[in-house]
Amino acid sequence: MAQASAHIALPATADSVWRLIGGFDSLPDWLPYIPKSELSEGGRVRTLANSAGEAIVERLLAFDEEGRSYSYAILSAPFPVSGYRATLRVLEAAGGTARVEWSGEFTPQGVSDEEASRLFRGIYEDGLKALAAGFKAAFKAAS
């Protein structure tokens, strides 16, 4: 099984970051390459459209409002992996800042562990950079 992870520190409280990213249907609010999300099965399944129009279907596995985290599995997607499980988490850090962690594990299909890990590490890093840019823009606008 291969793994990938990324993290970023943000100059905002963990609660404010969680309010933005903590909803299972909130990816379009902060992730530019996911412009659309639709919930089904009582909010437990989300169908995402990426910027190329490809569908990604994910199931919510665990949700912890107090702990500011959720875990999910990919049911179908255009990625060369199976058994994908990931967690998005927001932690309180020093000085009233937040640390956002995104990690996953999966079984590569037709690619090496390294290639699959690099793919998802890039997705996580790009997503967290976009999140940070959004908070930076909001901080400047408020100043």
Topology:
Layout: E1 2-10, H1 14-21, H2 27-30, E2 36-40, E3 45-49, E4 55-64, E5 69-76, E6 81-92, E7 98-108, H3 113-142
Antiparallel strand pairs: 1-7, 2-3, 3-4, 4-5, 5-6, 6-7
Short description, anyone?
The chain is an alpha+beta fold and about 140 residues long. About 30% of the residues lie in helices and about 40% in strands.
Structure description:
- The structure is a single chain.
- The chain has 143 residues and is α+β, with helices and mostly antiparallel strands.
- It has one domain: Alpha-D-Glucose-1,6-Bisphosphate, Chain A, domain 4 (2-Layer Sandwich), CATH 3.30.530.20.
- The chain contains three helices and seven strands.
- It has helices at residues 14-21, 27-30, 113-142; strands spanning 2-10, 36-40, 45-49, 55-64, 69-76, 81-92, 98-108.
- It has a seven-stranded antiparallel sheet.
- A hairpin with a 4-residue loop joins strand 4 and strand 5 (69-76).
- The radius of gyration is 15 Å and the shape is globular.
The total beta strand count reads 7
Percentage of β-strand residues: 35-45%
Order of helices and strands, N to C?
EHHEEEEEEH
| Amino- and carboxy-terminal Cα gap | 46 Å
Number of helices: 3
Specify the helix fraction band: 25-40%
CATH class: Alpha Beta
Low-pLDDT regions: none
What is the total domain count?
Answer: 1
